[in-house]
Write a structure and sequence with these properties.
With 407 residues, the protein is an alpha/beta fold. The protein has 2 domains: 262 residues, Glycoside hydrolase/deacetylase (TIM Barrel), CATH 3.20.20; 33 residues, no CATH class. α13 packs parallel to α15. The longest helix has 18 residues. The protein binds zinc ion (ZN).
Length: 407
């Protein structure tokens, strides 16, 4: 008779999950999940929302994004893009709709019907020489050489062009809105380094004093590296002398479910990276914040995900290429669907898409990713009486209400 231990020892290595992950699924450099723990047997520990989703296998698969656990391919930034997903119905928040049918009810402050999280990733506070060159070159055919040279000099001289935080807050204030700014905290030499966070100390102080949120925009190396996440978090916290609770990774780099677990361990209360970089919509069918479920551990992760739905980059000529008119139609459709579910719509607009009208025209900024388009979203949501606020506010609200939303 063999003991259980001996039988396990005899199982060939090629039958183990780690083997398959390492030699087949992880050919795209994804790390092995180091946090796998024994499955829980006490199903009562699931939240009410998860209990409800578990009733429907197909929706549960979509909700947990089972397909992202062992992807055959990823893009060159190790992201799982929409074009690799088997779930094509990206514009319908199917899981949230199901939860609403099952009794999900949320009462937002002042009886607002739905919420909008406005967010800004601050990748850069100054134009690089190559960007100045690009803008100069794109302006050239429309102007005489002298005029274009003037624009070039204007861009080089105008070092505050991308420090437009006040303009952004003033615009949002007009609509009684607040938002979240995610700042990088990189060091010179890191990939895409553009600014030292300490040089923005005064601006950060103003942003915080006005009631807008400051979160961390994790760098390229952060999404699967706990030490890097902690390091960047502490750099930002040192400058603002305040705890940082919110996170979004640069390029929306994300590994399901590892990134959630690392962020939770690093002390973040929420993440808002979970959206596709190449399309707008609902990546896992949710238009409500949720506790992510870790299939490996058979447990919910102790962090709130505020899924990203609409971004200037996804709508731009680099990805969806819908043009201004269709981009607006799809944006309205998503807003209307979130309103119907009493959900939370998360919008990302970079600071370099928020120049004033004259400068946008000068720089030929894509019409679907400029300030006027962003203001149209603000106006439309404001007319619908949405609660337009930062992720931090939504997160605080959710923490108080999440166990009481299923009737
Ligand atoms: Zn970024």
């Amino acid at each position: 008779m063999c003991s259980v231990r001996e039988i396990i020892k005899k199982i060939p290595i090629w039958k183990s999950r780690i083997f398959w992950n390492r030699y087949f699924y992880c050919s795209t450099e994804r790390s092995i999940d180091p946090y796998t723990i024994e499955p829980r047997t006490n199903k009562k520990e699931y939240s009410k929302v998860l209990h409800a989703i578990k009733e429907n296998n197909e929706l549960f698969d979509l909700f947990v994004k089972n397909e992202e656990y062992s992807p055959l391919f990823l893009d060159k930034y190790q992201r799982f893009p929409y074009y690799l997903s088997k779930y094509r119905d990206i514009f319908n928040p199917k899981v949230s709709e199901f939860l609403v049918k099952k009794g999900l009810r949320i009462e937002y402050p002042e009886k607002r019907k739905f919420a909008v999280c406005l967010t800004h990733d601050i990748d850069a506070v100054r134009l690089s020489r190559s960007e100045v060159g690009y803008f100069f070159a794109s302006a050239l055919p429309k102007r005489d050489l002298g005029g274009s040279v003037k624009i070039g000099f204007k861009l080089i001289k105008n070092s505050k062009l991308l420090r437009n935080f006040d303009d952004i807050m003033n615009l949002e204030e007009k609509y009684d809105a607040r938002s979240s700014f995610y700042f990088e905290a990189l060091q010179n030499g890191d990939k895409d380094f553009n600014y030292n966070i300490a040089e923005l100390k005064n601006e950060l102080k103003d942003i915080s004093a006005r009631g807008w949120e400051i979160g961390l925009h994790g760098g390229h190396a952060a999404y699967n590296n706990l030490e890097e996440i902690k390091l960047e978090k502490s750099r930002l916290e040192d400058v603002i002398s305040k705890k940082v609770i919110g996170y979004r990774n640069h390029y929306l780099r994300f590994e399901t479910p590892l990134t959630w677990k690392l962020l939770s361990e690093a002390g973040f209360e929420y993440d808002t990276s979970f959206g596709y970089n190449d399309v707008v919509g609902f990546r896992n069918g949710m238009c409500h914040p949720f506790r992510p479920f870790d299939m490996n551990a058979d447990a919910e992760v102790n962090i709130l995900e505020v899924p990203l739905n609409i971004s200037d980059v996804a709508l731009s000529e680099d990805y969806m290429r819908f043009g201004e008119r269709s981009s607006w139609e799809i944006t309205k459709l998503l807003i209307d669907r979130v309103e119907k579910c009493s959900g939370v719509l998360t919008v990302l607009w970079h600071n370099n898409s928020l120049f004033d009208k004259k400068m946008s025209r000068l720089l030929s900024v894509d019409a679907c990713s400029n300030k006027e388009f962003f203001e149209r979203i603000l106006r439309y949501c404001s007319e619908k009486k949405a609660w337009i606020t930062s992720c931090e506010e939504v997160c605080k609200f959710w923490a108080k209400h999440e166990e009481f939303v299923m009737l």
